[in-house]
Every structure is written in C-alpha cells, then in structure tokens.
Amino acid sequence: MAEKTSVRAVKGMNDVLPGEIARWHRLEALFRRSMALTGYREVRTPFVEHKPLFVRAIGEVTDVVEKEMYAFTRHHDELALRPEGTAGAVRAYVEHKVANAEPVSRWYYLGPMFRAERPQAGRYRQFWQYGAECFGDAGPGSDAEMIAELCAFLSAAGVTAPRVLLNSIGGPGTRVAYTEAVRAYLEPKKAQLSEDSQKRLEKNALRILDSKAPEDHAALEGAPTLESVLDEADKDHFKNLLGHLDALGVTYEVDPKLVRGLDYYTRTLFEIKGAKEKLGAGDTLIGGGRYDGMVEQLGGASVPAIGFAGGLERLLIATDDGEKKPVVSVFLAPMGSPATTYALVLARELRAHGVTCDVDTRGANLKSMLRRATSLEAPYGILVGDAEIAAGVVEVKDLNARTQEKIARSEVVRVLADRLAKGTP
RNA sequence: GUGACUGUAGCUCAGUCGGUAGAGCGCCGGAUUGUGGAUCCGGCUGUCGCGGGUUCAAUCCCCGUCAGUCACCCCA
C-alpha cells in the first residue's frame, strides 16, 4: 500500500498525456498569438517566491494566503509555491526597475500555479494560468482593450457565449470605506445572515455581497451601494470604460455585487464566465482588474496597472476538440534488418528537410506496421524491402487515397518534401 | 477545510440476494510468406482501490483508509 501510493501523482495534480496535448498546444498558441497582436511579451518568473511577497500582494486575510498556499521553510527562508502570477510579475517589474526604462510595459505569462484546495471540476491543486499585466497606463482605454481582446481570444478558442461581468470598486480608500459601510449596515442584522457570512462580517464584509445564500440577499436589501461611495474620478473612469466597450461592440453586464477575493484590486474589476453546464461551480474562465496601488506597495514607483488571469484547464473544458493532427507526415515500414538500416538513413534525410517521420524498427510484419501508420494518421507511408533496395526505389503509399507508386530512392526526399510543402494532405 | 456519492480488464460499464467475474471498445494474431482503417475467426489482460472485521467462505455485508466525482467555502 505504501509502495502503491508513492507512485501516484499528488492529489489534485494531473498528468497531461500525449494524446491530449494537442488541445493544450492549440490554446497556448492562440493565447500567445492574441498577446502578440496586442504588443504583449512573455515574462517568466520563478514558481517559488518568498512567502511574504504573496502575503503583502494578495492580502493577509484572503483565503488564498490563509489556507491555500503551499508554504515551506528552506534553511531560514520562508518560501511558497506561487498561487497566482501577478505578485511575481510585479516583484520582477519592481526589482528590475523597469519603470525607469519604459513608460508602459505589457507582459504576459503562462505556467502552473499552486493552491491547496479540494479538487473539483476545473479546479486543481496545480493548474495552469495564462495571464497578463499592463503597467504604466491608468486610462480606462487599457481596461477596455484588455477586455475586448480577451473576448476575441475566447471566441477564437471556441468558447460559446461568454459573459463579461464588470464592476468598479474605486480607489484603495474607497474600498476600505465601503467595506466599513457594508459592515456597519449589516451588523444589526447579523442574526439574519448565513453562518458563513457571520464570519465574513468580521473578516471581510465585502465578500457578503456575492454570497450565494438567499438569506444574505434578503439582508442586503437597502444596503449602501458602491456607487454612493465612488468619487468623481472613479465614476468617470468607469463611464469611459463602458463607452469604449460599447464602441468595441463588447457586450457586458455591470454587476455592482462583483467583488472578488484578492485584496489588491482598485477601480475596474471584471470576470468572464463560461457555460455552467460544462464547468459547474467553477464557471469563471477569467478574472481580472486594476491594481493601481500594488507596484508602490511592493516598493516600486507609483505605477498604475491592470491584469487578468485565466485557468487553462477550465478553458479546455469550455472548448471542443480541434481537428486531429497527424503525429508524423511519413511513416517508414522496413521489412527486414537491411531495410531497417536503409530506412533509418532515409528518415534522417527526410528530417533534415523538415519532414516529420517515424520509422517502425520493431521488426514486425507489414500488416501491423501499417496499422500503426493508420493510428498515427500519417498521410504517407514508405515501404522498403530487399527487392526495393536492389532496384534503387522505394514504395510510397498515399495512405488516405490508398494508392501506391515506386519512386527512385534518389528522388524520394525531394518529392515528399515538395508534396507536403504544398499541403496536399 | 465541510458534506454527499462513487471505486470491477488499457477505456466505458454489467454482475454475483456472500461460493474468487463478464460485455462492448481497444490491443494482439489469423483469414491475405510483403500491404492499413470495413468484415469474419481466434486470443490476451484483472491482486473486483487498499487494510482490517464478520463468516466455513467476502468483489458483494461492516469499519477504516486512499483515490475520484459533485456541492459548499473560495477561486482560474
């Protein structure tokens, strides 16, 4: 039993086998393409950071740092596996004094994050996030652009009917003031609240707003609205954002109760949701928002920023399979040992010309070699035996058309490279 | 972290009101000494998740444990 468990993957951390990797590659390529189109460049930061970085950036009383972090001590360093990407990106931005080198920085990232939660559909302990940060632009235009491009990306990926939810929670001062206002309003009604919300009242009263419990909804009737505490500049920012989105043709829903769980957000806050039928409770595809105070808080200059992050596994659930791609273009089936040597040499030449190929070196019979060629969906097969070697030719089989022709060994590399370049199959 | 459900072949699942298991798909071989996906024929694979208890006997009943799934919490 002990031996059995030791060769198991860690709970909530999954293998991606070669059979499913094509779907990942497809989405990753689409994401990189979308980022490149918008002038974003990739940044890679470590998977491990000093734990206090996350505590400071994400917030001491958030669930993510309180109970979901993989934290450990190595010698005298308090370290943690990154639970999200923004903290590390901001740290790198500050550490390398990037603000001094350029006014605006557009960074994206793609990689695994770690959160010790109970696994569920679309929620894992190691999961992949794609995300981006735009530093140095306080204008609502950058908010709108980010949201619009995300919608285009999701649509290219094949997500059906994503919903964009939007809200503004004002500047850092506003957030604190509003949290206090909500707390003060609900304090006398504490007994009516759900058990969870009674705890939230002390810890983070703002979170009661997006509670799912019906009794909380009732208690919130008549609560102070966010709008009542936003200052003119905040309102202006939000109004302009909506205007830009309208012009861009993005449909959205303003949701005054959208708050989100990370403490660092200011002003714009958004979420993009996918189909509940597929994703279940984890239907949030992308979450993001502005965090104008964070760069300064982590020791940098006062630089505004906005970012987002999405879960790749959730996107995989929300999208259908792309087309199946052949594993290789050419499958070489040699009959006999001299033919295997011959095929290995030929394959090397083909690869040198950029042709992907697989040589079946098992010494199996032709029938089973061709079966493999079929399962790899190779468009071409090359059959070689003693007779072909003696004749200086090779049998080239079009595996889709089921036709076959003899081609001179001296010609075959050029012929196949040409045919494949034309994209025939 | 809380609660519910599930755990039988590589995959999807059936089954035994307790007497150690089976179907489809897949895989392998043959029909076709060197020609694939269709068809036909044949074949292989299981510590019935793991540990313990009850019993003459447990895959089936009971307890525990691990894993998975779903919901909550929270979030991507």
What's the SSE blueprint?
Blueprint: H1 2-6, H2 18-37, E1 41-42, E2 48-50, H3 51-58, H4 63-67, E3 71-74, E4 77-81, H5 86-95, H6 98-101, E5 105-114, E6 126-135, H7 140-157, E7 163-168, H8 172-186, H9 195-203, H10 214-220, H11 232-248, E8 253-254, E9 266-273, H12 276-279, E10 284-290, H13 294-297, E11 305-311, H14 312-318, E12 330-334, H15 337-352, E13 357-359, H16 366-375, E14 380-384, H17 386-391, E15 393-398, E16 403-408, H18 409-421
Parallel strand pairs: 1-5, 7-8, 12-13, 12-14
Antiparallel strand pairs: 2-4, 3-4, 5-6, 6-11, 7-9, 9-10, 10-11, 14-15, 15-16
The structure holds one RNA strand of 76 nucleotides.
Structural class: alpha+beta
In whole angstroms, how far apart are the ends?
A: 50 Å
User: What strand line-up does the widest sheet have?
Assistant: 1-5-6-11-10-9-7-8
The total of beta strands comes to: 16
Largest sheet: 8 strands, mixed
Written description of the protein model:
With 425 residues, the protein is an alpha+beta fold. It folds into two domains: 18-170 and 230-318, Bira Bifunctional Protein, Domain 2 (BirA Bifunctional Protein, domain 2); 330-420, Rossmann fold. Helices cover 42% and strands 21% of the residues. A hairpin with a 2-residue loop joins β3 and β4 (77-81). The two termini are 50 Å apart. Residues 1-5 have low confidence and may be disordered. It binds one RNA strand of 76 nucleotides through residues 1, 4-5, 8, 11, 62-64, 67-68, 84, 113, 115, 117-124, 127-131, 196, 207, 212, 260-262, 280-282, 284-287, 309-315, 333, 335, 365-375, 381, 383, 385, 387, 395, 397, 399, 402, 404.
